[in-house]
């Protein structure tokens, strides 16, 4: 295959030093897994999270407890607070001598952003600006932040590529994520702050977000409850397993670029129909579906081009959708005291032979 050359790429600090990483939103799904990985390899981690009630606060506290129990308090600090709080952020940067920022705190979720855009602008735009200002002032070595596949809006491309100019968001959430990219670019330009934005494509896995489809489907089908299917089932999404996302994120933290955005996805889509049948298989029950029209703000299909992340970060999604869902269902069963089905116990070999990528 031909290698694309990305213009304007400049590696400014390929450091291998032990890092002090500020993980914002580190009580959340992706943040707690990322903090776990960084702590495991010996970095220090400071988490700031306001523990908001967008979904279960108990789950967020459990995520913090998980890392504290596993790694102890020596290299791990949790600060409960709002990323928009200027004096708190200043205090964190100066007290802990933060070297790298992994900014994952945000109001996430497309549909709720239509009902309450103000809170999205507060956390996502104001919060990001506050962190960028502190990071520039304290001259951190790298500022990595979560963007989203939703910035591709109504793109008609088969594979969403970072080279496409995207300025047509279709939800307030997507607009705030695009704003984060624009602000990061500005700070990298004005203050030489290395910034990398990561456009995550629907992330799922252990301790996954209860407001997202992968968790909801497993939960509803397990309980025999009615579940909502938006559209005819032909819509397709690129689902990315959590360990692949964490690996890509850490690779980005380790490789400061002047300014870059990367897609972090699996690089292939799964239709809603196939998705539901995989979950039915692992749960061992049929779904009770209620079919509704597509929702405003939703995009019909997402699929990441992962070429740029592969070339510049050495990123590669390793976990198949079937195997990722098997682990997700196993985690759900464990947490709810349920027995694993035969399909779950049989493992990946069996899953792969059924022809799902
Ligand atoms: P999450 O909701 O589990 O985690 C976000 C955390 O940020 C939460 O614990 C929340 O309490 C915290 N937070 C929100 N506003 C805050 C504020 N003002 N101050 C301090 N803490 C605040 O979400 P996640 O799935 O782990 O997502 C992490 C990041 O990745 C987010 O920026 C999200 O937009 C982005 N993202 C996620 C996905 C996905 O599929 N999960 C896809 C694309 C982008």
Description:
- With 357 residues, the chain is an alpha/beta fold.
- It folds into two domains: 20-204 and 240-264, Rossmann fold (3-Layer(aba) Sandwich), CATH 3.40.50.720; 213-236 and 268-304 and 319-349, UDP-galactose 4-epimerase, domain 1.
- It has helices at 29-40, 57-71, 86-96, 111-115, 117-137, 172-191, 213-223, 242-254, 272-283, 307-313, 321-335, 342-346, 348-353; strands at 20-24, 44-49, 76-80, 100-103, 142-148, 195-200, 203-204, 226-230, 236-237, 240-241, 259-264, 270-271, 288-292.
- The protein has a seven-stranded parallel sheet with strand order 3-2-1-4-5-6-11, sandwiched between helices.
- Strand 1 (20-24), helix 1 (29-40) and strand 2 form a beta-alpha-beta unit.
- Helix 1 packs parallel to helix 2 and helix 9 (272-283) packs across helix 11.
- The chain is globular and about 55 Å long.
- The two termini are 21 Å apart.
- 45% of the residues are buried.
- Bound molecules: nicotinamide-adenine-dinucleotide (NAD).
- Nicotinamide-adenine-dinucleotide is lined by residues 25, 27-31, 48-52, 54, 60, 82-84, 104-108, 123, 127, 146, 148, 200, 202-203, 209.
